[in-house]
Amino acid sequence: MAKYTPEKYIWLDGKLVPWNDATVHVLTHTLHYGVGVFEGVRAYEQPTGGGVFRLPEHIDRLLMSARMCLIDSPYSRDQLIQACVETLRENGLRGAYLRPLMFLGDGAMGLGATEMAVRIAISTYVWGTYLGEDGVRSGIRAKVSSFARASQQSSLLKAKICGQYVNSVLAKREVVRGGYDEAILLDSTGQVAEASGENIFAVIRGHLLTPPLSGAILDGITRDSVLTLARDLGIPADERPLSRDQLYMADEVFLTGTAAEITPVREIDDRRIGSGRPGPITQKLQATFHDVVRGRLPQYQHWITPV
Ligand SMILES: Cc1ncc(COP(=O)(O)O)c(C=O)c1O
Prior knowledge:
Blueprint: E1 9-12, E2 15-18, H1 29-33, E3 36-38, E4 41-46, E5 49-53, H2 55-68, H3 77-90, E6 96-104, E7 118-125, H4 133-138, E8 140-144, H5 165-177, E9 182-186, E10 192-195, E11 199-204, E12 207-210, H6 221-233, E13 237-239, H7 244-249, E14 252-257, E15 261-268, E16 271-272, H8 280-293, E17 304-306
Parallel strand pairs: 8-9, 8-15, 12-13
Antiparallel strand pairs: 1-2, 1-7, 3-6, 4-5, 4-6, 5-17, 6-7, 9-10, 11-12, 11-14, 14-15, 15-16
This protein binds pyridoxal-5'-phosphate.
């Protein structure tokens, strides 16, 4: 599900503008060199209206990504949180995807240019299940990519930097052309890193395992939520390096991300994972996550920002 339908407004540089007026000049610096940062956030229909899942954490990551790229945000954390809520509200959206993007404008070119304005756009739109309804229900087919995750010596993988996603797009396109649903990337040492736009988990003999944050991975907010839910549900969970063959041998594998939510993996490199169907731990976490994001479990209400 990649297509979106235009909504009424996009928040651009401090105000809501009509959707089709949210345009930029072709000499926009980020368009050429990829130095910009972004977020993917989801809002869900709640019993009492709309609610955004872990919005402050997403805005904190956006601002941290900007700081890592030496970009000074023209707006504060509170202003950006408010802007996301306002954009959803004015578009009349309850369940939606939010895409805040902080980018460098036009007016100066060259890699060393610093004179460009720092601009921010917040788009909100309805976006369905990223890896397909069937994928969420029955599991997807993944393939280990021939592209490795960039080394931490050459990139800042904890930052969600626009240009960094060339690596993910190359990996994703390669495996989709080969008939698979998603790419799993190894790091430069051959350990499992993450999928093209998701973190990865394996269940091995009842233990939930995921690569540690010191690895070549994004500090995923869904990853963090799943680790919290697992611990609260009494499922033993550890952050530990994983090898490719450990994935093949796992009883269950699933991916986590704001777009993909919790998506089971039923096959990797044509090898069936476990029974070839979503396993009990994956299903338990999926069902709990489904209720948490929709505000049905009061103990996780602090993760929801009302719209
Ligand atoms: C490379 C990468 N890894 C992991 C994730 C999952 O992060 P989150 O759960 O915060 O959406 C994403 C999505 O943002 C991503 O792009």
